[in-house]
Amino acid sequence: MRRALGALGLLWLLSACSSDGAAQNPGLVTIQESALPGSFVQDSVDTQVGVLRVRVLTAKCGIETIVGTHAEYTPKHPLCVVRLRLTNDSSAFVTFDADLAQVLDISVPLGVAKDVMNIKRQAHSVQISSHGTVEQDLWFEPVNSRPEILRLPPIPDASGHLIRESLRFQLSPGQG
Question: Phi and psi of 73, rounded to 5°?
Fold first, then answer.
């Protein structure tokens, strides 16, 4: 009787194991999320910049008003937001200083809209843990233009040298 129960228990344990894709590749994680309404979803391409892998997730321009947890704001010029996914490939913390990011507004660098970053509760600087990932919205207030180039803040490489890289992003045809 004990052997029969033991065999049934073993059979039950073996039947609980499956051979789905996650079991075959345990290091692969797929993240599916919805974008902000009206955002233009970008190609799924990571760019290595120093010790960070950077992916532009979405971009949207033409935002005329924003609402945060503690303020409403109507800017002089329509806003743009670029959402990034930042993955630290190093074994140490790295700082991403969002306040030093820029978009090119008719070839003139334009920094983040700090008031908007505050209203939308986005960090001005974030520490990314070893092998950690964060998502960050960068808000800008371009003047009569359609920016499509994001200049990242300086990011260290493995030897500590700072690298400044620019990434192209796309807006939907009606934006900007």
Answer: -145, 130
> Do the Cβ atoms of 113 and 139 come closer than 8 Å?
yes
The four Cα atoms 36, 39, 43, 49 give a dihedral, to 10 degrees, of: -70
Count of Cβ atoms closer than 10 Å to residue 41 Cβ: 15
Separation between Cα atoms, residue 65 and residue 51, nearest integer Å: 35
- Count Cβ atoms below 10 Å from residue 170 Cβ, excluding itself: 14
pLDDT in tens, 6-44: 555 555 555 555 545 445 556 666 666 666 677 778 887
Neighbours of 164 (CB within 10 A): 13
Among 15-19, 68-72, 94-98, 131-135, where is mean pLDDT lowest?
15-19
Is there a contact between 81 and 137 (Cβ–Cβ < 8 Å)? yes
User: Rounded to 5 degrees, what are φ and ψ at 168?
Assistant: -90, 140
Residue 133 has phi, psi (to 5 degrees) of -135, 140
